Amino acid sequence: MNIYKLMSGVATVCLLIALYLAFTGSLPSAGPFFIAFFLSLAISFRGYEKLKGFTYTTVIFSAVTTALYYPQHFLTVGDFKLSTLITPLIQIIMFGMGTSMSFGDFVGVVKMPKGVLIGVVSHFIIMPTIGYTLANISGFPPEIAAGIILIGCSPNGMASNVISYLAKANLALSITITAISTMLAPLVTPILMSKLAGAFVQVDTLHMMWDIIKMVIIPIGAGLAFNKLFSGKVKWLDAAMPLVSMGGIAFIIVIITAAGRDSLLSIGPALLLLVLIHNLSGYTLGYWSGRLFRMSERDCRTIAIEVGMQNGGLASGIAKEMGKMATVGLAPAIFGPLMNITGSILASWWQGKPTGDEDTYVETGRAH
Fold this sequence. Notes:
By secondary structure, the chain is mainly α. It folds into two domains: 1-77; 79-351, Na+/H+ antiporter like fold. Helices cover 74% and strands 1% of the residues. α3 (55-69) packs parallel to α11 (235-259), α8 (159-166) runs parallel beside α15 (330-351) and α10 crosses α14 (312-321). It is globular, with a radius of gyration of 20 Å.
């Protein structure tokens, strides 16, 4: 029998057992079966071309479930707090982002000024505004509500470039918008946070600026320099960095989940719903902001993806540096895996729909 079909069967059995235990009042005993369900499902997805993209996110669900059931294993090792690793991990991830970029990615501003301007401005207007609105109507404790604003005020993540490529969007434009919004983050994110989240949580603007510079600008700058000097010469690093980044993000999400377990169990479903609304509203309003300025279909798709997808890892790091990882960090921890699912679904849907300019389209970007 095909191993992937076998794992689908194992996943089904594990889910049925877990649900039976949950509904019969033995929820604590259901933990190992829920964990095994997600792991088996992740393996089975590898056997189906259209589902392969969801493997990583499903592994994250397994890891998050493990953190919810056994949080004590993800808080400390002896006297060492695992949360101490969050900032160095983000710096490694950002270095990896830098090695996959080049100085040419910033030249896109000159080649596509209109698209870049609309994409970056839309991103930093739409997502913070939606985040602020949702935080105000949520009724959540102030620090958790502030986390919704924080993810809205964050720059784009590299995942948006992959999704843009899959969605037949304008990859070159996507890469440039990501690069510019990331470089603007040390200035824009703290200012937006102080203005919008100041009523929910104390924001030290200058301290946050320095935190973002050390987590983003310095590592990306080092990565860019490394790429310039050693591009193609260190093959093992090129292959390793995406895996290191995925592992690092998973580890960060698990630590935050374990730290914020009690809050998640009480408001988890409601927070998940608001984060989903935030994400989907970003795609929708981003797309129509492109339409408003008469952008091409490909560019509208790009702006939709760039507006809707955020750098959850950076937002988690900022929350940790604020000393509020278990509260402010919850919304970013949920947003990351969720946007990968919605982004993959959106890309699959757009993949089968013509952009209207296939004949004239010449790929100017490069897949990351």
